[in-house]
Amino acid sequence: MRVHFNYFQELLMYVCLCNAITDKDIKQAVTEQGAGNIRDLRNHMSIANQCGKCTQITQQIIDSTILDESLFKEVC
Ligand code: FES
């Protein structure tokens, strides 16, 4: 995994090196597009479609993002 700082000094982690997809891209697709698994994610971006080495970490990021989102949702 490669870690870079973007212009705004945000920490980015490249998850899929074949397609230059970062953890932020994945989290954004989960929170804004409702992607809940890699198949859903592929509707929004090209990921895990070449060497496949990113498949496991991608699913872990999806799962942890869903968990984080559910912990901070308002309960009525
Ligand atoms: S690192 Fe994602 S397909 Fe190769």
Automatic annotation (TrEMBL):
Pfam families: Fer2_BFD (PF04324). It comes from Planctobacterium marinum. Keywords: 2Fe-2S, Electron transport, Iron, Iron-sulfur, Metal-binding, Transport. It comes from the Bacteria. PANTHER family: BACTERIOFERRITIN-ASSOCIATED FERREDOXIN. This is Bacterioferritin-associated ferredoxin. InterPro entries: BFD-associated_ferredoxin, BFD-like_2Fe2S-bd_dom, BFD-like_2Fe2S-bd_dom_sf. One of its GO terms (molecular function) is 2 iron, 2 sulfur cluster binding. Belongs to the Bfd family. The keyword Electron transport applies. Residues 14-63 form the BFD-like [2Fe-2S]-binding domain. Its cofactor is [2Fe-2S] cluster. The keyword Metal-binding applies.
